[in-house]
Automatic annotation (TrEMBL):
This is Putative hydrolase of the HAD superfamily. SUPFAM superfamilies: HAD-like. GO terms for molecular function: hydrolase activity. Transmembrane segments: none annotated. It comes from the Bacteria. Keywords: Hydrolase.
Length: 239
């Protein structure tokens, strides 16, 4: 049982973010980019891997902000991130579509749970109804759930931003998720890694928040529980 002072004592439904919370998107992204570099040795001959990783991440992060704000759509994002990479690194004899196709193929080969997430997810799913709330592309996120049957088996509600039409932290997405869970907002816990998308969005929706942040943040908003490893979340939930 949770103590009377624990803000999670009234939780009745737990949503999880997918990328970089349950699944290690960043590691898969970096491994896929290394594979892309290896697949086009002449194109990337002058580009160190670290420069490729940093440049791509910077470009992709900015484009995802635009995607979440609704100013660009999925095809535009997927094309622009490699078109801008080609320009930034002065790449020759390759197209954005070629790089994107190679990247997406290799990205799928590197999907893994974040350390400790699988056991924690399965433990929590024994005691609470659980769901997935994610900003990822619908086809990719469905493929991830198919790859990891434990996720599909235990997920009571699946809410993907592309299928709803708005992205986190938009309040309409959290409202849709609350309806899908058939649970009052104050009784929902959201577990996610992104401050801007997950913490801000959940707090504004009136949900409780567990912020997964392996690197300690400079500051933590009042009422937000943070954890660096999954056993800490289990302890907070009394499991």
């Amino acid at each position: 049982m949770l103590s009377s002072k624990n803000p999670f004592e009234n939780i009745r439904f737990i949503y999880f973010d997918l990328d970089d919370t349950l699944l290690d998107h960043r590691a898969a992204e970096q491994a896929a980019l290394a594979d892309v570099k290896a697949a086009f040795p002449d194109v990337f001959a002058h580009v160190p891997l670290e420069k490729l990783l940093h440049t791509y991440h910077t470009i992709n992060t900015e484009l995802w902000k635009q995607y979440q704000q609704g100013t660009i759509d999925r095809p535009a994002l997927m094309h622009a991130r490699f078109a801008r990479l080609i320009d930034a690194l002065a790449l020759r004899n390759v197209t954005p579509d070629q790089l994107n196709a190679c990247y997406m193929d290799r990205y799928r080969q590197h999907w893994r749970w974040t350390p400790g997430a699988r056991d924690a997810f399965l433990t929590i799913a024994k005691h609470f109804p659980v769901g997935i709330l994610t900003n990822g592309f619908a086809a990719v996120q469905h493929a991830k759930l198919a790859r990891f049957p434990e996720l599909r088996q235990h997920t009571r509600a699946l809410v993907i931003s592309e299928e709803v039409g708005v992205a986190k932290p938009h309040p309409a997405l959290f409202a849709q998720a609350a309806r899908a869970a058939a649970t009052e907002p104050a009784a929902i816990l959201y577990v996610g890694d992104s401050f801007g998308s997950d913490v801000v969005g959940a707090q504004n929706a009136g949900w409780q928040v567990a912020w997964y942040t392996p690197t300690p943040p400079a500051s933590v908003p009042e009422g937000v529980f943070t954890f660096r490893c999954w056993p800490a979340l289990l302890r907070q939930l009394g499991l």
